Amino acid sequence: MDTTENQTIPADKTLAARIAEATSLREGPDGVVQVLRAVLKSGPLPLRDLARIVRLPLPVAGAVRRELETAGMLERGGGLRLTEAGRTYCETELGLGAPVATPASASIANSDLPDLLRDLMPAMEAHVAAGPAVDVTLDQAPCTPETALKRAHAMVDAGGVEGRRIAIMGDDDSMSVALWLVGSALGARPRAITVFELDEARCDQLGQAARDLASPVEIVAQDLRDPLPPALVGRFDVFETDPPYTLDGMELFVRRGLEAVRRETGLPGFLSYADLAPGDQLALMRRLTELGLAATRIRPSFNRYAGASILGSVGQFIDLRTTNETLTIGAEERFLRPIYTGEVRPRLRRYRCLSCKQPVIVGISQKFETVEALKASGCPHCGEKTFRREGIVKD
Question: Taking a C-beta distance cutoff of 8 angstroms, is the pair 197, 203 a contact?
């Protein structure tokens, strides 16, 4: 007698990978995780509704359902629902919790926040206000506190937060704080967050915030032009980045994100970048495609920035997914090309001291790289700290 149909698949860490392989699921193991997440959050679900939520063809969703039923994870009864074993698996192996009564799936207009997130604004604003001075030589231009919360909310909706190990490639936007605040409020906490950040003062502030919030955030002092520490390569499920304004800078930060995540199809990445003219947007998409990444959603003018005039103070937010063509990123080489705007398009600006009337040239390769540095030090001729900008020094 053939008893194959009555055998169950052991529910260990490889369950999602084995089901993805058994069903030839192009979305990879993460596609299986998204099915379980949808049933946990929205079930019981008719198969047709499940397929729509996870954006799978109905026959493919049906094949995954059958494998999950065989594994003892799903059962039918007024729609697909998790078994007790399925709930335990979601909690212990995937880090997913029970749904909470929140507007977690509500869309957010650019100028609005759900009440739940609006309640988080005072904490987010206080954190941002206490941040260190912006270092424009690193293309720092922090997004507004509202944008950080909206971005975190969008990542939750995309299945990129709850139970995830998240790598943040540069965090002048304080996304490590926003993700923990929003994830906690929505019952969708990340399992761990690691921030790779060059700015020492910002590392200190983010580390203090992690201690204050008792959040699972690790701060790694890292120049992303250097390879990641070997122990952190391939350790994460998700990456998020708001990189330098140059295409080479963007590509480097995304490459480091891919270096950080597991070598698996269907893992999420989140990229913030400037709103671009069509030709420049094509160049951006071409770079991402060459990395084997698929852009699954683009939100123009989603991000708002305090300052960032070079971006027009707005920018797009792009959902990415790894594919079977995603490059295997080498971890042995330092990136040598310039990545910051001041390096790629260096400009010298003339400022005149309002006290002694002497001119001072500011820019890359000068004594003062930024006007902020000039003001902090004072006029090299008289020591006063008020200046008038006179324009760009012509070649």
Answer: yes
With residue 84 as reference, give the H or E element that holds it. helix 84-92
DSSP assignment string, 12-46: STTHHHHHHHHTT-TT-HHHHHHHHHHHHHH-SB-
SS3 87: helix
Packing angle, helices 58-70 and 47-54, rounded to 10: 110
Distances (CA, A) of 327 to 20, 264, 271, 273: 21, 11, 17, 21
Domains of the chain: 4-92 (1.10.10.10), 115-322 (3.40.50.150), 346-392 (2.20.28)
pTM: 0.75
Q: Are 84 and 75 in contact (CB under 8 A)?
A: no
Cα separation, 216 vs 229, whole angstroms: 19
Tokens (6 digits) for 256? 């480091």
pLDDT tens by residue, 237-289 = 999 999 988 899 999 999 999 999 999 999 999 999 988 888 889 999 999 99
